[in-house]
Amino acid sequence: MATTVEQLKQAQAQNRELLKEIKALTATVQTLTEEVAFFQRQLFGKHSEKITDPNQLSLLADDNGVFTDPEQTGNQSETTVTTVVHKPKRKRCESVDPNLPIETTVICRENLSCDHGHQLIPVGKHFVREVVHQIPGRLYREQIFEQTYKCAACETNDGVSHLYQGTAPQALIPHSLATSSLVAELLYQKYALGTPLYRQMKAWRRAGLILSETTMTNWVIKAATIVQPLYTLLHEQLLTQPYLQGDETPFQVLREVGKTAQSKSYIWIARSIRLAAHQVVYYTYSDNRAGKTAQQLYGDFTGVLQCDGYSGYNLLGATVTRVGCWAHVRRKFFDDACKIKGQPTITPPVKLLDQMFHLERGWRDLTPTKRKELRQEQLKPVIKQFWQWCDQAVATPKSRLGRALTYAQNQRSMLNRVLDYGEIDLSNNATERNVKSFVIGRKNWLFATSPAGAQANAIWLTLIETAKANGLDPRQYLEYLLNQLGQLPVFPTEEELAVYLPWQQVPDKKVWRDQEA
């Protein structure tokens, strides 16, 4: 009898162990299934975080889609629910800048006689159509001479020739064919249009200029040293602002001291908030992602910084108040919502997060004071519901939902701070768009050969994105800077540089205005 009881206890213990093992294996299978769905969506899904199901927003009966500005850095790939939508036929969207020059063409008859042989007399003209022509850019050679003069009177008096000559402006790059217009076009093609230098070589050759990739690379780096004082001043101006946003993205640099060519380096971005009077978008290169780089980037900054949950920002001092990004949180829960066959399922946290963004979209143009007031009245209860759901949710730590919950809970205090600052947006998407500008280029350049090249990338992207943020045409602004800064002393003063800051320029509609701004 005792043996039978003992055997029964052993069998029950074995059953308990088997049940634990089955439970663990089930959780593992579920986690792996989610991973497979996630990677399938990364590889084959659409680049969007929108959910197009018209029934998704039962919390908001008057709106069918609230998350209109998803984060896009070029690395993620999300899918949307496939629905059959009969869209109205779009009208052709064609418009012309009214400041474009106009040339009039009048088509005359070849035969100026009527059917009876009488002479025809012009009585007017009627409009047929308007079209736009494109004239490709052209290159021309400029040979610069300095006119020489002599004083005949002085020579008559003392018998000695007194010669004088004009003073040519300093060359942009000594002993080089490079000019401000040529380098500005090269930079615009690379950094604004994402065309790497080796692909530009063929276009320059067809235009009549044979350049090597090494020559063009040297132009990019040497020209960057000319504008670097202004780049440094922009950083100083940025750190005087009370509210900033920041992010970072990996980049490969082949020849770094003490590192292999396959190792990761980083481009860090810090920028003004959307409501700042003076817009600055600042890029900088670092060979690491350590917190010491964040300390260097934000060393003299005292204010509010909106960023993601990366731990490197934890080393910033007490003078910096960190605010979280709700778009990053939504992305994590969106990944969980897509765990079944890569198709999004409308989950409670996604509903609540979409409601937050819907409210924020309606307050976008309000003053910071009014927006803070409305956040306390309307946004705060929704955030409270979100945290209540998170506190009650149960998920395995390695599942998509578990990771989303951990990410959100670790930043709970920083995410809630958005209620305290009406100046800060709900998300860090503005910085993410600047990251995307770099990522588009990175997909084409692939890497930088040297740290000098990587830092030159950061300098030119800073000037281009800052120009765009201030409503300037980046191509024209680069040429203007190269023309002017190239003639300044080697160590220009802050007063000499300040006049070239983008917000000091008065945009002319024909020259400066950036049509994309």
Count of alpha and pi helical runs? 15
Mean pLDDT, nearest integer? 84
Q: Unreliable runs, pLDDT <50, ≥5 residues?
A: 54-82
- How helical, in percent, are the residues? 40-55%
Give the strand order, joined by hyphens, for the main sheet. 5-4-3-6-7
State the order of secondary-structure elements, H for helix, E for strand: HEHEHHHEEEHEEHHHHHHHHH
Secondary structure category: alpha/beta
The biggest sheet amounts to:
5 strands, mixed
Backbone CA Rg: 31 Å
Question: Termini distance?
Answer: 88 Å
- Proportion in β-strands: 5-15%
User: Would you count the extended β strands for me?
Assistant: 7
Shape: extended
Protein name: IS66 family transposase
Domain Transposase IS66 central: 175-456
Organism: Lapidilactobacillus mulanensis
Domain Transposase IS66 C-terminal: 462-487
Can you describe what's shown?
- This protein is α/β, with parallel strands linked by helices and 517 residues long.
- It contains 15 helices and seven strands.
- The strands form two sheets. It has a five-stranded mixed beta sheet with strand order 5-4-3-6-7, with helices on both faces. It has a two-stranded antiparallel sheet with strand order 1-2.
- Strand 4 and strand 5 (281-286) form a beta hairpin.
- Helix 7 runs antiparallel to helix 10.
- This is IS66 family transposase.
